[in-house]
Every structure is written in structure tokens, then in C-alpha cells.
Design a protein that fits this description.
Length: 404
């Protein structure tokens, strides 16, 4: 009998322990199970994960500011998950006054926006190029509008926005102050060229020319993964990721401006000059309405020794010197080449002396095959900006027009 009692007790104990274990598991599952995540809404890109972005029917980022209708789109991986666009229209105050002063030579009127990408209450930068679209303000003509960014020093950069479907669309790699500008009649009369280009391929190809002659081929007959300068070359295209051919051996490779930090504690000097003498030899092609701004001897700026700082570019020097000497200069940023393009200096623009004309630059006698904002200077460099009327043939830099 005692044995039977013990057997019963053991069974009861085991059953009790098993029941306790089951209850413990259920309680644990109830209180400690991970919170179920809601299914992402395909119309809300900020809720998508990286995997969702890569496989979504609408790939990448598509964010719109509800108040202004300003929209930002990007490929997967460019804008972090959860990012939001914030837009603050600027209509008064010091910032507006700065923009007003900056745009006074080009604008009949303008709308100013402070645009930012935000994530977790912090301003962020995209990891590459995004496409922004700003609705055309009421009363603005998209065919004679531009979009400029304006920096803290009052410098404006034309982003060559395209007008279509009531929006101005442009590519950018950063956000800041952007102005939608209705160009003035005076500005348009001075330019005599359309502000927006339906196809910029031909014009921009002059900024990153095929490197032949002085403007340079490295002599490589087949694409490689690197060049003597250390550039990373795509074996499929024979160029770097910004469509630049390998530079000749011994010449400086281009840098990416966003990866460079200027050190104003280290000052250097270089020489800068600006000439347009080629126009004087091609007066039959020249826009006669520009005669009043054409220097009689073809010299805009005699060779001058100027100061620059460690890690500054050819473009940095041109921008500062023209501003200090009150010489007109206009440029646009070109994301495809990650550089700026010099449209005009001293009110002399590309195409003012024929369809093959424009500005180009050389350093120490060499015409680089990449933009001036990607060329880092060194002590004693000699910078020459020259106007060509024949894609560089007439100034010793075949097919290196613009260089900006």
C-alpha cells in the first residue's frame, strides 16, 4: 500500500510540475513576446525597410511635403529609412534679404524655401543624388525659370532645373536654401540663350571631354580597374563613376568636393588669369549685342598672384577672385559629373561666339579632362581661364571646352 501511495505521489508531482511549466511558458510568451510590427504601407516610403525599398513596386524613396508639394525621390540606399522632408518657406528676415541681394541681377521675382532631410530629429544628407521637384508657383513661367541654391556667403548655384507638368525638377546631393526664380527680361536679353536645356548631353560632354591630345588620354587601349593616378575605373565604361576618362600619367587625379575639407590655417599662392582673345579672331561668329562687354585686347583679368587655402579647388579660387574684383561669373552644378560648369564670365557666355564656343581652363599648361571644382591646387600653380570658339582647337586644348 505504501508503494502504491508513493507511485501515486510521484505521478501527481510530475503532472503538477508539467502543468506549472506549461503555465510558465504561456505567461512568458504573453508578457515577453516581441511586439508585432505593422505591415509597411506601400504608399508611405518612410515605413519601408531596406529590403522593402529594394523590392517595392515603387523603388527607393518618394517623399512629399504636404504643405508645399515639394517632392524628393531617390533610388534604394540613397535616403535612410524613416527620413522625412521638411520645407520652410522663407518670406522675410536676414536670410530672405541675403537671397534678395544674391538674386538681384537675375530675378524678376522668386520664392525661397529652406529644404532639409530629417531623421530622428536630426538633419541628414543623402548618400548620393536625389531628384527634387518643386511645384511652379502661381504666375511663374516654367520656360524662363531657374532653381538656385544659395549658401551662407550669398553664392548662388544654378541646378539647371527642367520644367514639365507644372514642376521644376532637378538633381542634387544636398539640401539647403533653394530659390525658384522667374528670370528678369534684362537677364534673358543679356543671355540670348534658353535658361533650360531639353537635352544637356551635348553641352555637358564638353565638361568631361574625351581625353585626347593635351586634354589627355592615358594611352590605355582597354578599360582597367585603376589608372596610374589611382582613379577607380569602371571596366565596362573605361571611366570613373562620374564619366571621367583616366588622366594622363603624372597628372593630378580629380577629387570629390564633398570629401574634401579646406584648411584655412594653411595659405598658399597661385596665379590666375582670364582671357577671351579667341573671340577677336572670330568676330564673324560673335554675338554683336555683346560688343559692349568684350574687352578690346581680349583680357578680362591679367595674370595675378592670389591666395588660396589648403585643399581648395580651381573653382574656389575663380569664385572668390571674381567676387572680390566684381567680375561677373555664372555657373551650374552638374550631378552627373559631380562638378560645376562655368556658363559665363564677364557676361560672355557659352555659344556667344558660335555653337562650339565656351569657357575652359588649364593648370600649368594642361587642360584637365574634369571639372574645375574637382581639381585641387598646390603651391605655385598657374591657372588660366580661356574662351574658345572651336571646342578648344583654337587655344591648344582640343575638345576640352568649359572645364567648369
Amino acid at each position: 500500500m505504501e508503494f502504491v501511495k508513493k507511485q501515486w505521489w510521484h505521478k501527481a508531482t510530475k503532472i503538477g510540475l508539467a502543468a506549472i511549466c506549461v503555465i510558465a511558458v504561456l505567461v512568458s510568451a504573453f508578457f515577453f513576446a516581441p511586439e508585432a510590427k505593422p505591415k509597411p504601407n506601400a504608399s508611405d516610403s518612410s515605413a519601408l525597410t531596406s529590403a522593402d525599398l529594394a523590392t517595392s513596386a515603387t523603388p527607393g524613396t518618394d517623399i512629399t511635403d504636404p504643405a508645399t508639394g515639394i517632392n524628393v525621390t531617390a533610388k534604394p540606399g540613397v535616403v535612410p529609412e524613416g527620413a522625412m522632408i521638411t520645407v520652410v518657406p522663407v518670406e522675410s528676415g536676414n536670410t530672405y534679404a541675403l537671397a534678395q541681394d544674391t538674386l538681384k541681377t537675375v530675378a524678376a521675382k522668386f520664392k525661397l524655401y529652406d529644404i532639409s532631410l530629417m531623421r530622428k530629429n536630426a538633419v541628414i544628407a543623402p548618400n548620393g543624388t536625389v531628384t527634387a521637384a518643386i511645384p511652379l508657383p502661381d504666375g511663374y513661367d516654367g520656360e524662363t525659370c531657374k532653381v538656385y541654391s544659395i549658401d551662407s556667403e550669398g553664392e548662388k548655384t544654378d541646378f539647371k532645373a527642367q520644367s514639365a507638368d507644372g514642376r521644376l525638377t532637378f538633381d542634387t546631393a544636398h539640401f539647403s536654401l533653394y530659390a525658384v526664380v522667374q528670370l528678369s527680361d534684362e537677364y534673358l536679353q543679356a543671355r540670348k540663350t534658353p535658361p533650360n536645356y531639353p537635352d544637356t548631353t551635348a553641352a555637358q560632354s564638353n565638361q568631361t571631354p574625351s581625353a585626347t591630345g593635351e586634354s589627355g588620354n592615358s594611352g590605355t587601349s582597354a578599360p582597367t580597374t585603376s589608372s596610374p593616378s589611382g582613379m577607380v575605373i569602371d571596366p565596362n565604361t573605361g571611366k570613373d563613376k562620374y564619366n571621367t576618362d583616366p588622366v594622363p600619367e603624372g597628372k593630378p587625379a580629380p577629387v570629390e568636393p564633398e570629401n574634401v575639407t579646406v584648411d584655412k590655417n594653411k595659405a598658399h599662392t597661385c596665379t590666375l588669369s582670364i582671357r577671351c582673345g579667341a573671340i577677336l579672331n572670330n568676330m564673324d561668329l560673335f554675338n554683336k549685342e555683346k560688343l559692349s562687354v568684350l574687352p578690346s585686347d581680349g583680357t578680362v583679368l591679367l595674370p595675378a598672384t592670389v591666395t588660396f587655402y589648403e585643399n581648395e579647388s580651381v573653382f574656389d579660387v575663380l569664385k572668390r577672385v571674381t567676387r572680390e574684383k566684381r567680375i561677373h561669373m555664372e555657373f551650374v552644378f552638374t550631378p552627373m559629373y559631380n562638378s560645376v560648369y562655368i556658363e559665363g564670365i564677364h557676361n560672355l557666355y557659352e555659344f556667344d561666339c558660335g555653337s562650339l564656343s565656351g569657357w575652359m581652363y588649364k593648370v600649368n599648361g594642361w587642360f584637365p579632362n574634369y571639372g574645375a571644382s574637382r581639381y585641387l591646387l598646390k603651391q605655385g600653380d598657374m591657372i588660366e581661364w580661356v574662351y574658345t570658339c572651336d571646342l578648344g582647337k583654337d587655344v591648344g586644348g582640343y575638345y576640352a571646352v568649359g572645364g567648369g
